[in-house]
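R.M. (postdoc): so does anyone remember the format we settled on? I'll just put the structure tokens first.
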């Protein structure tokens, strides 16, 4: 079995979006894992972010989405399509690896990411 943090380069994991999908990913990376990765979350959905940080010693909460991106080599997007506007105005480095775990039913307009 692969370690839970195979998506996390250098044992670091950054997520944008803090809902059910992000919580499940973080739990999978950290729960009952001998060496869980360092996980950085944005403050959105403060109750879930605070709960994850309290449950797992390797989880911290950044002040905003840009701070998450600035610390990332790999970022997992865990947003609902209707919340994709949260990505607008953020700066994505050209070498940043982006993994989409965006949920949703209806297809909506995708934001243009400027690298």
């Amino acid at each position: 079995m692969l370690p839970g943090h195979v998506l996390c380069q250098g044992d670091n994991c950054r997520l944008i979006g803090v809902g059910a999908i992000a919580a499940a990913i973080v739990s999978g990376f950290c729960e009952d894992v001998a060496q869980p990765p360092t996980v950085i979350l944005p403050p959105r959905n403060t109750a879930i972010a605070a709960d994850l940080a309290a449950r797992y010693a390797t989880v911290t909460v950044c002040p905003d989405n840009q701070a998450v991106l600035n610390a990332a080599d790999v970022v997992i997007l865990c947003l609902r399509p209707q919340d994709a506007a949260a990505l607008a105005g953020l700066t994505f480095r050209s070498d940043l690896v982006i993994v989409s775990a965006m949920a949703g039913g209806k297809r909506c307009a995708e934001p243009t990411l400027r690298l």
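R.M.: ...and that's the designed sequence above, right after the tokens. Also worth knowing: Confidence is low (pLDDT under 50) at residues 1-6. Helices lie at 20-30, 46-55, 65-70.
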